[in-house]
Design goal:
Elements lengths: L1 H39 L1 H27 L6 H6 L3 H21 L6 H23 L3 H23 L10 E9 L5 H20 L4 E13 L2 E10 L5 H18 L7
Antiparallel strand pairs: 1-3, 2-3
Length: about 260
């Protein structure tokens, strides 16, 4: 009985470790696919980015469900956690829908409306989970915690950039956002929205790496200076990538009617 307990739990552990390694390799592949596809068609690159996160979370969730079949626990624990594979899979599906909603909201609502819609959807999902699994509260809490771990692991893997320091020139730039807005509260909201748009515009441009910082540095009579710093990973097309970033930033700011100074 002791040997059976150890062997089955070892199977569970090996399945989880194997799943993490597999997801890590897939994340590298999907990162490269997103960059390659994005060079030819930015929409395809965006679609790959949208699908990558929930797809990798789904793989981890599915492997946890398979591993759970081997897991040996005291009967009371096993009963309490019996629904966790299904709950984790449901949460990964909700993450997919959340990504789709976020993609649709890239163009259209301002930052505040976008946050309200996203928060409402998250609240709705949590409400559905509580309504369906309130009788198994321990399993629900464990599933939420486990899903958070899966999200963190996948997020870190997808953000990983295996690039030598010599291949990551740092680009710095500056934009001045005009402060001609009805009130300081509106101006502050627009600055936050502009910073998020700039980060988004850089991240989705092929040939760029990590966005190091976007700082509201100086307030002048013309407006407020935003200092931008990010990596360019495509050294062969350095000037072209920089130009695409600038054009993408201007395009997105104009779409949201955020004004730059003349």
């Amino acid at each position: 009985m002791g040997a059976d307990f150890l062997i089955n739990n070892l199977y569970f552990l090996l399945i989880i470790i194997g799943a993490i390694l597999f997801v890590y390799i897939l994340a590298i592949f999907l990162n490269n696919l997103r960059r390659t596809a994005g060079e030819n068609n930015q929409n395809i690159g965006s679609i790959v980015e949208i699908l990558s996160f929930p797809f990798l979370v789904f793989i981890l969730s599915s492997c946890y469900g398979i591993g759970f079949l081997f897991l040996k626990l005291p009967s009371s624990w096993k009963d309490a956690l019996s629904a966790t594979p299904a709950i984790v899979l449901i949460i990964s599906g909700m993450a997919f829908i959340f990504n789709i909603i976020s993609f649709i909201l890239k163009v259209g609502p301002n930052l505040k409306i976008k946050r309200i819609i996203q928060t409402t959807f998250c609240g709705f999902c949590i409400g559905i989970l509580i309504y369906c699994f309130y009788k198994n509260l321990a399993g629900l809490i464990f599933s939420l915690a486990l899903s958070a771990v899966f999200f963190f692991v996948v997020y870190k893997f997808l953000k990983f950039r295996k690039i030598a320091e010599t291949e990551k020139p740092v680009i710095t730039g500056q934009l001045v956002i005009t402060h001609i807005y009805p009130s300081s509260a509106v101006f502050q909201e627009r600055i936050k929205e502009a910073m998020e748009i700039i980060k988004e515009a850089i991240s989705e441009t092929p040939g760029t790496g990590e966005v190091l910082q976007i700082l509201a540095s100086d307030f002048t009579p013309r407006g407020i200076d935003l200092q931008i710093k990010y990596y360019i990973t495509d050294r062969q097309n350095f000037d072209e990538v920089k130009s695409k970033v600038n054009l993408n930033i201007i395009k997105k700011l104009n779409e949201r009617n955020i004004k730059l100074t003349d």
